[in-house]
Write a structure and sequence with these properties.
The complex is a heterodimer of chains A (about 425) and B (about 290). With about 425 residues, chain A is of the alpha+beta class. Chain A contains 13 helices and 13 strands. In chain A, helix 1 crosses helix 10, helix 11 packs antiparallel against helix 12 and helix 11 packs parallel to helix 13. The longest helix of chain A is centred in the C-terminal third of the chain and has 33 residues. Chain B has a 4-stranded antiparallel β-sheet. In chain B, a hairpin with a 3-residue loop joins strand 2 and strand 3. In chain B, helix 5 runs parallel beside helix 7 and helix 7 runs parallel beside helix 9. The longest helix of chain B has about 35 residues. At the A-B interface, strand 12, helix 8, helix 11, helix 12 and helix 13 of A face strand 4, helix 5, helix 7, helix 8 and helix 9 of B. Strand 12 of chain A pairs antiparallel with strand 4 of chain B, so a sheet runs across the interface.
């Protein structure tokens, strides 16, 4: 039994000395740390179903690289359905953040439609007749987007000496580019960035090497800027900003402090209540509760559970339910004390209370699993800590309590019934 | 303390029916304010305003032709604008920044289709949870001796859970009308948590009932039923108290979570009420039928 106890000194110890493991620190949610949260809608309409996953992943890495330019620790970029959530913590100017991310260019190559010349004619007529909004795009998008871009550099064209942006595609991209150039010899293969045509070169021959050059009347600065933006990663699909939320760091700190205060008073009140109502049993909860806290926090630390406001609330609620279990046990134990001796009462108390504890916590866990389907970060944080807290509490509040109680059973304290009833 | 729960059941039936009717009435006349999570639309929080500016902002919005918007002043410095759509938001923001030195604290746009999707999801989740609870009770109490039947108990518990939620909804409707509470995702979560946690109380009572029925053969059924409730009364109150304490401090110290915790507190209380005064008496009423 003593071994059991020792086992649990370890996690508590580790939690306190976690400075020795510098890589592991608690992850805090944005509402406690302060920062900016941006949600982008990804336009996957032109992407084939099988490729949607890849495109989203590619988009995620592009944005991660871009956000890293801010130099903040651990930016969070997550895929939620067809949305991308970017969280940048710390003191961040949301305007700047949106602009920087917004600078991620959407690069796509467009080829001429079948009826290219007809459309050009129609458009000319429409402009002449002032029907400007009836202009049709004579180009159609190909599948060659920034997704396949390996690198981009500023260079000087060998013949004209003008600044250009030199692109290099990855293997897949090179293949696609090769096919496209082969198909469109003599025709225009237009290069669009952020839906603006930058360059409309005529393809002279099939290009198998996967290298292309964008000549667009750039100044040196413009070419350099474009190359830099493209290298940071070009978007494989267009994104639009859906929502933007800023939490000031000061407000974040206040919120954090407040919820800790709530937790502190809750624990204090509960302990006082338990001692007043259940006499000495109340004291028996001290150690199990201590282990409960350390162990839960240890698990949160190890598994990198993000501690957002809702997560901490969930943890507090699980605390209430942990005490719940002990209340059930103590009530029962007191009844059993009438009939038998201390040790018997302890064991019977646990045995009889267990079905109710099991069912009660079981249903809450079930509902938590359902909550996970919501997919919202608020829900997940809450459900996760509540569930983990319940699971840990089942262990600490029952087994460790039993341990303590049995230790006490051997002492003289247990004979003095009045202390317990 | 011997209270004849079964005997006084009619009073509580009446009370519950009144509460249910009242809730339905409130829901009908006051409705529930939906947050943009569920409604779709735009929520815009600007910082740095004062009384005068709020009126100016309102004027500009009207000039820009923004229809159906709602403007609130929160605290000393925040202005919250809610609308279905704010076109040219960036331009308007520039105007606000230049003219009034307002800063954008938050901007959220949720398409109505997503909102509808979420509404559907919510209803599905609530129904599914209730169904799950029904099954769980049915299975957990499958060894219930006659004349009790596990499915009847399952039905009673599920009905009472539904009853609790409905009363909570009615109450939320009042919060919504008079305290500007909005039904958002966190609030939905609190309702679902009430279902998951509330069922605990019923389990405790029926668990004791099962134990007593198996043990005591020679008493009138009413007496056994009453005993089940009175014997579990103490722990019901104490466990509810423990949870409410935690929630109370969250409510007190954590303003962002205030509606969330309030709903949970009320949910716990209503759950306590129905598990003590309604669960067992209803079982009795159903026995005779």
């Amino acid at each position: 039994m003593a071994l059991f106890c020792l086992n649990f000194v370890f996690p508590q110890g580790i939690k306190k000395i976690f400075k020795n493991f510098p890589s592991k620190e608690f992850k805090y949610g944005l509402d406690l740390k302060g920062g900016v949260r941006l949600v982008y809608q990804v336009d996957l309409s032109k992407i084939k179903k099988e490729e949607k996953g890849d495109v989203l992943e590619g988009l995620k890495s592009v944005l991660e690289r871009r956000v890293n330019y801010f130099g903040v620790k651990e930016p969070v970029v997550q895929i939620q359905g067809e949305k991308i959530v970017v969280e940048i913590s710390g003191e961040v100017d949301p305007e700047k953040a949106v602009k920087e991310i917004g600078k991620t260019p959407y690069l796509v190559f467009k080829e001429q439609k079948e009826n290219f010349n007809e459309i050009i004619e129609k458009n000319k007529k429409a402009i002449e007749e002032g029907r400007v909004n009836e202009i049709e795009d004579p180009f159609q998008e190909t599948e060659l987007t920034g997704r396949y871009l390996k690198s981009a550099r500023m260079a000087f064209d060998s013949s004209t000496g003008k600044p250009v942006v030199s692109l290099e595609f990855n293997d897949e991209g090179a293949k696609i580019f090769s096919k496209l150039t082969e198909k469109n010899v003599g025709k225009i293969l237009a290069i669009y960035i952020d839906n603006q045509p930058i360059s409309e070169p005529v393809v002279r021959e099939k290009i198998p090497g996967g290298r292309a050059q964008i000549e667009g009347n750039f100044s040196v600065e413009e070419a350099r800027e474009l190359a830099r933006n493209l290298s940071a990663g070009a978007l494989p699909a267009p994104i639009s900003l859906l929502s933007q939320k800023t939490v000031g760091a000061i407000l974040g700190e206040k919120t954090f402090f407040n919820i800790l205060r709530a937790g502190f008073f809750a624990v204090l009140t509960l302990l006082i209540f338990m001692i007043l109502y259940y006499r000495l049993f109340g004291f028996l909860i001290f150690f199990p509760l201590f282990v409960y806290f350390s162990f839960s926090l240890f698990i949160f630390l190890i598994f990198g559970v993000t501690l957002s406001l809702s997560a901490i609330a969930g943890f507090l609620l699980s605390l209430g339910m942990a005490i719940d279990a002990n209340i059930l046990i103590f009530s029962r134990t007191r009844e059993e004390l009438e009939k038998g001796d201390f040790l018997f009462a302890i064991r019977e108390g646990i045995k009889r209370a267990w079905p109710a504890i099991r069912d009660g916590n079981g249903t809450t866990l079930l509902v938590n699993i359902i909550l996970f389907y919501f997919g919202e970060s608020f829900v997940r944080g809450f459900a996760l800590t509540l569930s983990l807290g319940i699971l840990v509490s089942l262990f600490t509040q029952i087994l460790i309590y039993k341990l303590m109680a049995e230790i006490v059973a051997g002492t003289r304290l247990s004979k003095i019934k009045v202390l317990w009833k | 303390m011997e209270i004849d729960f079964v005997g006084i059941r009619r009073f509580f039936y009446f009370l519950s029916v009144s509460l249910l009717v009242l809730s339905l009435v409130f829901l009908k006349i006051f409705g529930i304010r939906l947050s943009i999570d569920l409604r779709g639309g735009v929520s815009w929080v600007l910082e740095g305003g004062n009384e005068v500016l709020a009126n100016e902002v309102e004027k500009i919005l009207k000039e820009q032709g923004i229809k159906n918007f709602l403007l609130q002043k929160v605290g000393e410095r925040e202005i919250i604008i809610k609308a279905e759509e704010i076109e040219k938001k960036d331009e308007i923001l520039k105007t606000f920044q230049e003219k009034f030195q307002l800063k954008e604290k938050e901007f959220e746009k949720i398409s109505p289709t997503i909102g509808k999707e979420l509404k559907r999801k919510t209803i599905f989740l609530v129904v599914f949870s209730l169904l799950l609870m029904f099954l769980y009770i049915g299975i957990a109490f499958s060894k219930m001796p006659k004349p009790f039947q596990n499915w009847k108990i399952g039905a009673i518990v599920t009905f009472l859970l539904f009853h609790d939620i409905l009363i909570l909804f009615g109450f939320f409707s009042i919060l919504s009308k008079f305290f500007l509470a909005e039904l958002s995702i966190p609030i939905i979560i609190s309702f679902l948590t009430v279902i998951g946690y509330g069922i605990n109380n019923f389990i405790v009572v029926f668990d004791r009932l099962r134990e007593l029925v198996l043990k005591i053969k020679k008493e009138k059924i009413e007496k056994i039923l009453n005993l089940a409730v009175s014997q579990t009364l103490e722990r019901q109150i104490n466990t509810s108290f423990a949870v409410i304490i935690c929630l109370f401090f969250i409510f007190l110290f954590s303003p962002p979570l205030k509606w969330f915790s309030l709903i949970l507190i009320l949910g716990t209380l209503v759950s306590l009420y129905s598990s003590v005064f309604l669960a067992v008496p209803l079982t009795y009423s159903f026995l005779k039928k």
